[in-house]
Structures are given as C-alpha cells and as structure tokens.
Amino acid sequence: MSKPLFIFEMANNHMGDTAHGVAMIQALRDACAGFPFAFAFKLQFRDLDTFIHPACRGRDDIPYVKRFEETRLSRKQFQVLVDTMRACGFQTVCTPFDEPSVDLIEAMGIEMVKIASCSLTDWPLLERIARTDKPVIASTAGAMPEEVDNVVSFFQHRAKDLTLMHCVAEYPTPDEHLHIARIDALRQRYPGVRIGFSTHEHPERTEPVMIALAKGARVFEKHVGLPTECYPLNAYSASPEQVRRWLTAAALAQTMTGSEAWPAASAQEQASLHSLRRGVFLEHAVAPGQPLTTDDVYFAFPPQPGQITANQWSKYQRFTTRQPLAADAPLLADAVDARDEREQVLAAVTTVKQLLHEGNIVVPGRSDLEISHHYGMDRFAEFGLTMITVVNREYCKKLIVMLPGQSHPEQYHRQKEETFVVLHGNLSVWLDGQRVEAGRGDVITVQRGVRHRFHSADGAVFEEISSTHHADDSFYTDPAINANPHRKTLLTHWL
Fold first, then answer.
1. 227 φ, ψ to 5°?
2. Would the pLDDT of 346 be above 90?
3. Is a pLDDT exceeding 80 seen at residue 495?
4. What are phi and psi of 28, to 5 degrees?
5. Strands 460-467 and 418-425, how do they pair?
6. Is 383 left (phi over 0), alpha (psi -120 to 50) or beta?
7. Confidence band, pLDDT 50/70/90 cuts, at residue 337
C-alpha cells in the first residue's frame, strides 16, 4: 500500500434510501479532490433474515433491530451503491456480521473485508472470512493483547494480507479515551502487520488523525453522512465539509499523546460491544452433562444478558450443560460448565521453553510452534509432542520436544525417511515394536514404512532431519487419531 488509505464508513447512514446513499458517495468524491491519498467507501452487510433471532424480528423496542430493519437494502440496491463507489474512483470495503454476508461480498466482488470490533473474536465468522482471497482489516476496540495475538496468528497462518486498526468503541470518543499512543504499541508488537486508526471522535476534531498519521498509521476509517432535512447526522459521522477539513489536517503532525497501556474495556464499551454480538442459542433440546458442539448451537442477534456469545465459541473453549436446555434457548453462562484449553496450551508452551533452555537449544526467531495433542489437550501430558519446523523444502529439519512422561502414538510414513539426533534428555523409540534407548548425541534412523513411537521419562529435545514433510504422510495405527481433525494447535507468538 503505497499511499495512506482513507475509508469512509457509510454504515446505515444511507438510511435505506438508495438515492441518498448515491448522493453521499458523490459528495465525498468531491470532498476528496486534490488530496494525495487512496480512498475507499465501506458498507455493512447483515443477512437480517438469519442474523436477527426469529423472536426479535419486527420489534420496535430493540433499538438496533429497529435500525437495521428500517434501513434494509436489497442486493440490487447495494449493487447501485457499489457501482457508484467504483464510478467515483473509490475502492470498495464491506463489514460482514454473519457468514451469508461474506458470500455476498464475494459475489459482488468487493475488494476488502473489514472485521468490526464486536466481531474480532467471532471465530465462526473469522473462519469464513479466512476462506476468501481478500485483504482483511480488523478493528481492535475492547480487545486485550492476547486476543489480538490470537487473531493475528490465525490470519498469518493463512497468509492473509492483514491490517489492524486501533479503535475505541465509544461514540463519540472523548479525548481522554483516544489512547493514540496504542498505535506505537501495535506497531511494536506486530512488526509485519499494517496498522491503522478507526476514529470515532467528534467530527470537528482533526488533531487525532494528525497524531495517528505521525505515529505511522497507514489506514484511516471514519463514519460519514450527508445531512439533509430528512436525514440529520449522528454525533460521530462527518459531513463532506468536515471530511475535507479532516483530510487537510492529515498532512500535519501535532502532539496528542495517550497511554500506551492496554486497559480493560470500560463498562460502557463492554456493554456496547456485547449488545452488537451474536448470542449462542440451542439448535435442539439438550440433556444435562452434554458436551456441546457446533452442531448443537446456532448464532443469532441480539444476545441476552449473561449469554455466551459467538466470540466465546472457539476451538479452545469447551462447554458442558449443567441442566436441561430447550431448543432455541439462549446458552447462558450459568447453565454450563466452561473449560478454556488455552491455559493448558500456555502451560505446555512454558514447559517446552524450559526444556529448550535447559538443553541450550537455539531456536530460529519467529519460528512457529506446533502442538500435537492426539487425544485432546486434557491428555497432552500423556500423549503428544511439540514441534518447531525450521525448514521444509526438499530436505526438512524440525526440533521436537517431548515433555517428561509424554508418549507419542505409533505412526509410519510412506514418503519420507527420518533421522533423529537427541540433543537433550532421554528418549525411548520403538521401531516395528523393537525398543531402542537413546540419549544426548545418539542417532536413530526411521526408514519409510517403519512403525515408530516415542516416550521420554524425563523430557527430551531431539532434532528430526528428513526428506520433505507432507501433511498427509503421517499414518497412525490408532484410527481415532486419523479421524480427529483438531489434533494440532499452531502458535506464532510464543518465544
């Protein structure tokens, strides 16, 4: 991205009126004339027939539901807006709030996908977005560093073009809550990720964009509108005249520093974000003591107080019912026992780092860590290993860490041959059932087709040197392992 990109967020400010939306786009085109920046216009997509819970449709007493339904546009109407954006020289961006909306983004050829702050950890939605071929822009309001770490790792493992936006979900945002210095923190924490600034300050304030640009932000987003007698502006959307003053100020740099700390979201911000998230509802009746899977639930807006949301439904979270639950009931936090496997993952990483340190093992920087938990993290201390792939070309080198008392189940390879060099600790290896003991400096070769398993009584680090590793070339003799699609966890930010 050679020029700073300025994105104008239309949201629902088209008011469900296509002509008004077209006039807004054309007015913003004129406001941008002469500035040395790249420009884009952004829409929001919600598949309202599935996004809003059936019992809440048509309700006038739920503000967001009323707003969304009153400003509903058809695909044909959205196409008119997108065509106008392109005719006016704007790139196109869209925020989807559900999976069908991502389908529509692809069908309409919109260039970039924006993830709203309330959806930053909506893992079902992120999985769908990751399958597109489009750059991703993600806002971070209300998120803690480890949550952003997880999202960055998720998209980097999928080789996505990612931009992170510093954002505060208060509308408008008071000066003391801007924390513009957090742009510095994001740039330092994620050096390979583009950083931007999604602004919600009062539209007359131009200092924040000046400071953000001076701090290295390269993408900027602002809510815009076109005031008329029928459609007044809200408190955080800028008119074309205000946008022009904002763009003029973007070339200047002044001082408006905030805290680089990452405070917890305020109660107001948490309430705002929660109110926009999708709640988890039961697809069918369930009995007490039932572990819930994705097949047992669906995600719908609006969430109920105390309800588990889609943001909490990740591959690390496990929910087991405490009581009978009816079909379409909200999944309330006090109705389930929740277990977060992330703590087990972090504990495993801590032990791995300790063994690497004890063995004085040098690990190349930014190496990804692969945790194999063949029977789940609950049994990782018993079965599993941790692997660091250094190179995987025609030749392959990995560092493998076995925790004290850990075993690796029996497997074999058809394509690759392996040689193990023990760097630290002790290792027992079974080759076609024959046991071999190895310690520091010992070398063991495993030929193609030879069944092999490992165990380390006190923990071990060993080097695997092999021909190219192929993901589909590991065959376990226990069919339950081959049938488990979730037996690996990948981490980037772990060293």
1. -70, 135
2. no
3. no
4. -70, -30
5. antiparallel
6. beta
7. very high
